[in-house]
Amino acid sequence: MKIFGPVPSRRLGMSLGVNNIPYKICTYSCVYCQIGKAVRMQSERQAFYNPEELLLEVEEALQKVQNVHTDYITIVPDGEPTLDINLGVLIRRLKTVGIPVAVITNSSLIFQETVRDELGEADYVSVKIDAITDLTWKKIDRPYKTLKLKSTLDGIRRFRKGFSGKLTTETMLVKGLNDTADELTRIADFIKDVDPETAYLSIPTRPPAVSGVLPPDEEAINEGYHIFSKRLSSVEYLTGYEGNAFSSTGNAAEDILSITAVHPMREDAVWALLDKTGDSWSIVETLIEQKSLQESTYGGHRYYLRKFTK
Ligand code: SF4
């Protein structure tokens, strides 16, 4: 399917998805990829679908959902969107619809000036930064043989300088691959320079391409969050648990689950929430018993996190 949605997305609100690449043609073959193994790996850009036809399909899809407010048209294929040599034309054509355009890229081709120029036409760009060291990058993202990590990182920095839209980063945490304090500190330091609006931490929550690929333990996820938070003003989890952490329902259990799906809650913040709703600590104990919530200690404080691995 080339057009899908609109679907609710925590990052983008209601988002109409555009698939500009045939199934699973990618520059990477990430161990955690949730859409299966790469059908074809390449770094050469080429033409895939006709941008005019994609635009027509987008217009048709929007016609059908006139009563739904669409916040973004998002180019988020089952592969790498910048492999499409017509990406720039596509973004320009989609923008004529009058809805902001977002692109979710693994940033592997951002070292190319043309790709940076094309992405620069979007209103929102999310770049993937899973590793800063070559060995980890090769283990986790398994890039196409011609790609170089240094070029990718330089490309992201350059793109940042010239981009006036909204830039976010996404880092997938994988147990045993990039979840050490050292690797996470290096990644966070790099992202600090990039200065994104929000740095998202993802965790594999659906079956990955390679069996045995797991999310880090809650302790490591919590530590990762704190390492990032010390350096960056806005850090959030992106885990598929799409609670609304930013408005209270008045139901303490629901609010705790929604908030902890986005970031860990310190014990005193949980108490403050319970005070507001007039509930007792037994709610927290029940959530822990149900394996929906996990307790973890960091820097001498107790934190509560949404349990990611049931
Ligand atoms: S970059 Fe995205 S589509 Fe490509 S292999 Fe990685 S997770 Fe899958």
Please tell me about this protein's structure:
By secondary structure, the protein is an alpha/beta fold. The chain is globular. The chain has helices spanning 51-64, 87-95, 113-119, 134-140, 149-162, 181-194, 218-231, 252-260, 267-277, 282-289; strands at residues 3-9, 13-18, 25-26, 40-41, 72-75, 101-105, 124-128, 166-172, 198-202, 235-238, 265-266, 293-298, 301-306. The chain has 10 helices and 13 strands. Helix 1 (51-64) packs parallel to helix 2 and helix 6 runs parallel beside helix 7 (218-231). Iron/sulfur cluster (SF4) is lined by residues 26, 28-30, 33, 35, 38, 79-80, 106.
Poorly predicted regions are: none
CATH class of the largest domain: Alpha Beta
Work out the number of β strands.
Answer: 13
- Overall CATH architecture of the largest domain: Alpha-Beta Barrel
What's the pLDDT, averaged over the residues? 91
Strands of the widest sheet, in order across it, are 1-2-5-6-7-8-9-10
CATH topology of the largest domain, which one?
TIM Barrel
How many separate domains make up the residues? 2
Shape: globular
- Classification by helices and strands: alpha/beta
CATH superfamily membership of the largest domain: Aldolase class I
Q: What is the count of DSSP helices, taking H or I runs of 4+ residues?
A: 10
User: What is the N-to-C succession of helices and strands?
Assistant: EEEEHEHEHEHHEHEHEHEHHEE
How large a portion of the residues is in β-strands, by DSSP E?
Answer: 15-25%
Quick synopsis:
The chain has 310 residues and is α/β, with parallel strands linked by helices.
